[in-house]
Design goal:
The chain contains 19 helices and six strands. The protein folds into two domains: 347 residues, no CATH class; 73 residues, Lrp/AsnC effector binding domain/regulation of amino acid metabolism (RAM) domain (Alpha-Beta Plaits). It is of the alpha+beta class and 437 residues long. The longest helix has 26 residues. It is 68% helix and 8% strand. α2 runs antiparallel to α14. The strands form two sheets. The protein has a four-stranded antiparallel sheet with strand order 4-5-3-6.
Length: 437
């Protein structure tokens, strides 16, 4: 698939996410925010599972998808976590984040809530990666993060300057929401296939990648919907906030008194299918069929992901009708655009390419090939002959630390791998092209 098509899918995804506040605000006028989240995830989950069933029926390469559910996630350092437990934790993080975000709409408004949540998340992820030693700080990344923080400050001042009553506790809730959303983003990326899945799955097939990602999403949504029940019991005594307690009580009232009307509400249906199912399928579809010669999927997603807070801010101002200073809003927009530009330059200048020469135990080569194919940083893998090595692979990472971590934690730990030699690419020499006469 061409780069233009997959980039269009990412852009459309973020545009759709940006208009989520529109049906969400309307739905919360009639139903509890927990009712909205519950049906949103329930519908999206069932739809994802149906999509997987269709893909599995049409593509023979997806027949081994059941092994994904039964396997263990090996992405956690000290132990392997059952895949179902891992997705349950991710679903919990997702539900808590969205519940607090939607609740903050009524306290500080859509514009501030969305801007803080979406803009602070990449900053928190960058700081966490820096603290772990997997990312390095440089001038471009510093300007990028400073632009995001300034955008949040300016948009908050713009709302206050408009003489709008704001409940300060809303900033706390949206801040906690950003933390949980950050944890969701980081945990959902922790996904190293288990041995059972590696033995039966074809990771080179785009249809398998698509089915796996969609099933992962469907199970996450399912747990995200189910966690609403314990969440509405635990939150009231913890938060000690009458408005939140009322939302929790209203959830059970909706289920007992307005079940059918809530399940068929146009705002909830559009939120579930058009603004949840469609964008996620577009996003994971782009990831499954991402061209190898382009910048990585993660890099482009981080660059274009900042479209969401921009769109949501202008939806809040011009459609929902929130009062806010437009001059300040334009300044915040300039900071967001600056951060997008800085992120692009950072991602395009910090790519590290490494050539890996791997010596293996020949009796275990089949399993080794399968495990290496599951590592997305390896762009190409070749079986070669020679005294020094048996496998040649090309790896692309965002920085040198990530390259060495990938080799030490995911390649050298593979049973049967004897030795890994790393050669780094300093620069790509373009071939001399003769001028046409």
């Amino acid at each position: 698939m061409s780069l233009r098509k997959v980039l269009s899918a990412i852009v459309l995804t973020n545009l759709l996410w940006g208009i989520i506040p529109l049906p969400a605000v309307d739905a919360m006028k009639t139903y509890s925010l927990f009712t909205m989240i519950f049906f949103r995830f329930l519908y999206a989950s069932l739809s994802c599972i149906l999509v997987v069933a269709v893909i599995r029926k049409r593509s023979p390469s997806v027949r081994g998808i059941g092994a994904y559910i039964k396997s263990f996630n090996r992405a956690y350092r000290r132990w392997s976590v059952p895949q179902v437990i891992s997705l349950a934790i991710v679903g919990f993080m997702l539900s808590v984040s969205l519940a607090l975000l939607f609740f903050s709409y009524n306290l500080v408004g859509v514009v501030i809530s969305t801007m803080i949540s979406e803009a602070l998340t990449p900053v928190l992820i960058a700081f966490w990666s820096w603290a772990k030693g997997t990312e390095r700080m440089d001038i471009l990344k510093g300007v990028y993060m400073a632009s995001l923080v300034l955008a949040v400050i300016v948009i908050s001042v713009a709302r206050v300057e408009a003489d709008v009553a704001i409940n300060p506790i809303g900033f706390v809730y949206v801040g906690i929401s950003a933390v949980f959303w950050t944890m969701f983003i980081m945990l959902i990326a922790k996904d190293i296939p288990g041995r059972k899945e590696i033995e039966v799955a074809d990771f080179s097939a785009g249809s398998y990648k698509m089915a796996r990602s969609t099933l992962k999403l469907g199970i996450t949504f399912l747990f995200g919907g189910l966690v609403i029940f314990p969440l509405t019991i635990v939150l009231p005594p913890m938060a000690q906030l009458p408005e939140l307690t009322a939302q929790c009580s209203r959830f059970y009232t909706d289920l007992s008194m307005s079940l059918f009307s809530a399940a068929t509400d146009p705002n909830i249906l559009s939120l579930s299918f058009i603004l949840t199912l469609v964008p996620y399928l577009l996003l994971y579809g782009a990831q499954a069929f991402w061209p190898k010669e382009a910048l990585t999927f993660d890099q482009w997603s981080s660059i274009l992901g900042l479209i969401t807070p921009l769109v949501a801010s202008y939806v809040g101002i011009f459609v929902i009708g929130e009062s806010i200073r437009m001059d300040y809003t334009l300044i915040a927009t300039a900071f967001i655009l600056t951060s997008i530009a800085m992120r692009y330059f950072h991602e395009t200048t910090s790519k590290v390419v490494g050539f890996l020469f791997i010596r293996i135990d020949a009796t275990k080569k089949k399993r080794i090939y399968l495990q290496l194919k599951a590592i997305r940083e390896l762009q190409q893998i070749f079986a070669i002959t020679g005294e020094a090595s048996d496998i040649y692979a090309e790896a692309v990472t965002s920085n040198l630390n990530r390259l060495y971590l990938m080799v030490s934690q995911r390649i050298r730990t593979v049973d049967g791998v004897k030795k890994v030699t790393i050669l780094l690419v300093q620069r790509i020499v373009e071939p001399h092209k003769k001028k046409r006469t």
